[in-house]
């Protein structure tokens, strides 16, 4: 099946359980890390749960689940109340600037109950899962974050599949939180749903980080208004997306043994030429280097958009909470990310191989410190910019880039809402372009899933690439697509 027919049964506004109507709303000013995402799209994460065998009719069972999910979400929003608010813009007439903040007015989260004519097998069995099959299981496809002025900052869609399975699709405004914060919320919601009154939550911290106190609120030139002003018809939450046209997404599932072998291979001859000291390549650096090097090598074999002299950017989105001074707690609810970028020539990567790329990724991670974050923020404050799709002239935007997002350390498969663990984790179309690489833990302890968007011809070439397939073919290794 190439697409899903989704029927919405109900749409509900869910507010914090302790919501009291008042005009004294709490204001949370966005910092540079938050503002950078205003023109990008909502984050989308989904959990697939198999059918549970329960007494009673299916209608009674699903209705009970929907009711319980709404109630537990309402109680979770007591702790994560900014998600129930809206973005807002304040104009400063004294210096002709504006600032953007979260208005914690408890207007609510949008909660959709839907059905779809697809099954678990349609989602987990194909080598390439059509994006048109996954997209309808999420809402806010293609919606930029600045539209959080009129739309909810969180949208939840609960979809019943034809075989009784359930898909929970969550779309969250990326200007309000990052992946660490998003999974903190989902983990907390599942704990409240599973344990009702007997739960212990790690309270989120909403106080925004600023290099200098005088930087709050961030004052943007009034000319930015056209870039962050919601002007579209708000009767629909779907827009055309510049997503992965002509691309498919494929998941490479690395076992614990696969990963150990690749890490050992990467570290076998790696040295830093300047110091001649050994360095240690991490498991993730080895995995990304192995996959990305194979992509460029296969592009060359296909003569598919390969240019040995062309510049290639490799990029990691890295959590920098512990790198700041003073460090932020892991429960910091906002965006605390460092965007590491290294550039090299395509031919250089093909000639030097995956160990070379692994060492570059290691250097990128080692550079993630307070000095890098401070310099970036101070530079941004001097000349603010808010990148968007198609802005090739803006620093940090590359047309030929591999970008790794998410993390294998996020607790994805531990989200039990009372029906057991999820059997799969999926992402929506938002933020997917050529080379977008999504990292997640596998359902088996120690395994890692690497999903990447590419043309199908490149994937087929990778299947025939001996060096790439070596990671999966030797005992005791196993490989599944």
TrEMBL record:
GO terms for molecular function: transferase activity. Pfam families: Transferase (PF02458). Gene3D superfamilies: Chloramphenicol acetyltransferase-like domain. Keywords: Transferase. This is Transferase.
């Amino acid at each position: 099946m190439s697409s899903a027919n989704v029927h919405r049964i109900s749409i509900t506004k869910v507010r914090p359980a302790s919501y009291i109507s008042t005009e004294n709303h709490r204001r949370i000013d966005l910092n540079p890390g938050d503002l950078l995402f205003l023109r990008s799209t909502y984050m989308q994460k989904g959990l697939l749960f198999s059918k549970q065998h329960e007494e009673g009719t299916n209608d009674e069972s699903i209705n009970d689940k929907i009711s319980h999910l709404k109630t537990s979400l309402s109680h979770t929003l007591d702790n994560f109340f900014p998600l129930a608010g809206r973005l807002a813009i304040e104009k400063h007439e004294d210096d002709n600037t504006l600032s953007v903040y979260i208005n914690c007015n408890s207007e609510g989260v949008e909660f959709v109950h839907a059905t779809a004519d697809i099954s678990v097998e349609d989602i987990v069995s194909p080598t390439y899962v059509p994006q048109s099959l996954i997209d309808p299981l999420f809402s806010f496809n293609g919606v930029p974050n600045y539209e959080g002025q009129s739309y909810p900052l969180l949208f939840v869609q609960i979809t019943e599949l034809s075989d009784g399975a359930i898909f929970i699709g969550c779309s969250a405004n990326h200007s309000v939180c990052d992946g660490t914060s998003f999974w903190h919320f989902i983990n907390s919601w599942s704990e409240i749903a599973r344990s009702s009154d007997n739960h212990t939550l790690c309270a989120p911290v909403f106080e925004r980080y600023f290099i200098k106190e005088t930087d709050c609120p961030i004052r943007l030139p009034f000319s930015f208004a056209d870039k962050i002003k919601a002007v579209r018809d708000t009767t629909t939450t779907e827009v055309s997306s510049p997503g992965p046209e002509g691309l498919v997404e494929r998941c490479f599932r690395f076992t614990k043994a696969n990963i150990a072998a690749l890490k050992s291979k990467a570290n076998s001859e790696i040295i830093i030429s300047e110091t001649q000291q050994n360095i240690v390549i991490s498991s993730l650096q080895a995995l990304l280097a192995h996959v990305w090097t194979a992509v460029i090598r296969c592009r060359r074999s296909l003569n598919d958009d390969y240019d040995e002299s062309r510049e290639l950017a490799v990029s990691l989105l890295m959590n920098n909470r512990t790198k700041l001074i003073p460090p932020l707690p892991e429960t910091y609810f906002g965006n605390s990310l460092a965007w590491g970028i290294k550039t090299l020539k395509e031919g250089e990567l093909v000639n030097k191989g995956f160990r070379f790329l692994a060492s570059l990724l290691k250097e990128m991670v080692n550079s993630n410190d307070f000095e890098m974050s401070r310099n970036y923020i101070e530079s941004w404050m001097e000349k603010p910019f808010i990148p968007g799709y198609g802005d090739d002239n803006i620093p940090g935007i590359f047309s030929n880039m591999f970008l790794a997002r998410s993390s294998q350390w996020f607790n994805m498969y531990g989200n039990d809402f009372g029906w057991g663990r999820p059997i799969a984790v999926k992402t929506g179309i938002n933020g997917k372009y050529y080379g977008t690489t999504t990292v997640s833990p596998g359902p088996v302890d120690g395994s890692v899933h690497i999903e990447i968007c590419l043309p199908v011809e490149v994937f087929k070439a990778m299947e025939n690439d001996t060096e790439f397939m070596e990671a999966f073919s030797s005992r005791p290794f196993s490989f599944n697509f």
